């Protein structure tokens, strides 16, 4: 319910939490004057005055010469609001704990309000909200990776960016497979189509030999796209499970055996990682490399589901500290509790 309200009226939860804090302090300290209340809550008197006026108009508080108190209606409202927001504050504590555990800038945990809702769509909505906050009115480039989660992110962009005419979506790697709709080229094109932005293509195979890699890097259009990619202010990507991604990339049997032998659990940017974040196999590809990520101002990773938890934690052991993660409660709880099902 709360995430639905926030989606329709952004900022509502912050307002509710602030007013609950005011009601709670009045309850604990009544009777209390406005100046003393402002000091306790670290609010300006002007800000507090407008909030108190609203609460008084709703008959939640009453005031006399001795100070402010909660009305009976205010008492019941405070209790109901506290129960409503308890779930949200729990999630916020989990977000802080998860970010600290993973050693990254921030975590956003998506809470499913409807078990029938598509989990990837809810993750995607949160990603788009973060992207909106990061964008300004300057010309800017956004690099995007591929995958089924990224396809959901692309579709969530519809009508969300007010003015995206100055945005350029660039695929962060090449790719052409049996599922073109999850390839970065198509993801970038879809985002541009839905937002009125521009996009480029990176016409290169998903993975290449070392010799072909060097030759492709000299192609004028590829060089141009890679130059745009190097100027990206944001890269959006997902984190994959090692064997699932290995099969999607159609790796040779000897490479699959190598991944199993070394305990690979995660894949991102063509690197397969073990549970300690050590690279155990690397796929040669055209596009953004893990080594370049520290130069990108904003990194937004998205992955959810309990079965992705170990992959998320493994990748974050090597991720730049300014990485932001969007995940769900299922993955977050497994990581926080350290309970992996292999």
The CATH class assignment of the largest domain is: Alpha Beta
The structural class is: alpha/beta
Looking at the structure, what is the overall shape?
elongated
Radius of gyration: 24 Å
Indicate the CATH topology of the largest domain.
Answer: Rossmann fold
Classify the helix fraction into a percent range. 40-55%
- Poorly predicted runs of 5 or more residues: none
What's the story with the biggest beta sheet?
7 strands, parallel
Number of domains: 2
Report the order of strands and helices.
HHHHEEHEHEHEHEHHEEHHEEEEHEH
Count of helices?
Answer: 14
Q: Count the E strands.
A: 13
Approximately what portion of the residues adopt beta-strand conformation? Answer: 15-25%
Distance between the termini: 33 Å
Query: In the CATH hierarchy, what is the architecture of the largest domain at level 2?
Result: 3-Layer(aba) Sandwich
Strand order of the largest sheet: 3-13-12-7-4-5-6
The averaged pLDDT comes out at 89
Short characterization:
With 342 residues, the chain is α/β, with parallel strands linked by helices. It is built from 14 helices and 13 strands. The radius of gyration is 24 Å and the shape is elongated.
Give the topology, please.
Elements: H1 2-8, H2 12-29, H3 34-41, H4 45-57, E1 61-64, E2 67-70, H5 72-102, E3 106-110, H6 119-134, E4 140-144, H7 148-156, E5 167-171, H8 184-195, E6 198-199, H9 210-216, H10 220-230, E7 234-238, E8 240-241, H11 242-248, H12 253-261, E9 264-268, E10 271-274, E11 279-282, E12 298-302, H13 309-316, E13 323-328, H14 329-337
Parallel strand pairs: 3-13, 4-5, 4-7, 5-6, 7-12, 12-13
Antiparallel strand pairs: 1-2, 8-9, 9-10, 10-11
Helix pairs in contact: 2-5, 5-14, 6-7, 7-8, 11-12, 13-14
Domain CggR N-terminal DNA binding: 15-84
Domain Sugar-binding: 93-337
GO molecular function: carbohydrate binding; DNA binding
